Amino acid sequence: MNEKSDKDFVKEICARDVDFSQWYIDVVRKAELADYAPVRGCMVIRPYGFAIWEYLRDELDRRIKATGHENAYFPLLIPESFLAKEAEHVEGFSPQVAWVTKGGDEDLEERLAVRPTSEAIICQMYSKWIRSWRDLPVLINQWANVMRWEKVTRLFLRTSEFLWQEGHTAHRTEPEAKQEALMVLDLYHEFLNDYLAIPAHKGVKTDREKFAGAVRTYAVEALMPDGRALQAGTTHNLGQHFARVFDITFLEEDNLLHYVWQTSWGVSTRLMGALIMVHGDDAGLKIPPRVAPIQAVIVPITFEKSKAEVLEAARALKGELAAAGVRVRLDDRDEYTPGWKFNEWELRGVPLRIELGPKDLAAGVVTAVRRDNRKKEQVPRGDAAPWVNAKLDEIQTDMLKAATAYRDEHTREVTSRDDFYLVFEGRPGFVKAPWCGDTLCEERLSEETGATIRFLPLEDTPADGFKCVGCGSEASQWAYFAKAY
Ligand SMILES: [Zn+2]
Taking CA atoms, which of 17, 61, 338, 419 is between 20 and 30 Å from 173? Predict the structure, then answer.
């Protein structure tokens, strides 16, 4: 690839205003996060994308373990008879299940499902492992791939195979299970907020939107720059539904057999899609420092006669930053101009770019440019390491502030039916509106506007005196609507 075509390559990103979907795909592919696989609907996560996923995963894993959970691994294949045990569950997933029917040349006696989720296999095992109240609670998480055959796919956002974590817990009492589902909801909410700089809303799903087989589904819902909501994670209070189907009982202190109370919860590589969309701009990615594989890149500005001196200073600076805990890269590639490198690292979303040239050396400074707002600052060379660390924290905070301001500007209240229909001729973001609580009304609203109820507030929100925006009858509560991914 020669220099000219490289420059064009960086510029070949569709503007967000022109076509947001195209912008997204361009950024994912040109920043080398992921690519399409030979099997339709599957993706290859490339090293740069996988590095982001690893930082995200490791931190979430740390938080999951810190709340008392342990990791385990269950098999990829689930016998059809296990999956078929729970009617609602199997019905919910059956259009998307991929099946293994042969081992070598031989037909299998029973079809095996490639897991679309692992309730069926995990519940089967829990029914063997759990005997007494002393065995409870069981708090297990698994990091795994799952497969749901998708007709329309988009890298990270909707792929047939994706990576996720799925927590599966069993408890002695109903309040414990409910508390677990809400605790993990908070955990997800905080993780998104202070690690990914994504300010999500949290709430409970309506019956129509809940997970097949759950009593209650809770979700964190984030807002994307095109005005669509994205469900970033869910937790489910499963009640005793699966326990009855899979016969998971324990001997209580009263010497009677009781069914356990269960939860399940998960987030997936979809979070990568949210991260890309929430923060990116027309120049490409903006990665929050905490999850950035490269937090600072040093680009030496070299001229023939000062080259050796500048490179030496750049190497020293790199060593100093690395020793201070900064994930730093020195881009000393000869074949690219500094301008080309600036474009590339902007595209790849590196939070801080440090320029070092003969003028900086002479003045005893380094020049730094923030990716989030492009502000340029000069810092005394001697202060570089603590300054960079403080600046990365500031960028993280400012990115959350910007995303929060956007979310709040695009969360509005609408109380009349006419306004509701009018506002959903576009993509207004989240719309809080009074609703009657009826599923048929919810369905009709959704068909007519393209918006769905993303969540109901966790606390009681009586809507006394208001009429439902769908049917005009007395409203029973407030609901948050949006068009969604
Ligand atoms: Zn209604």
Answer: 61
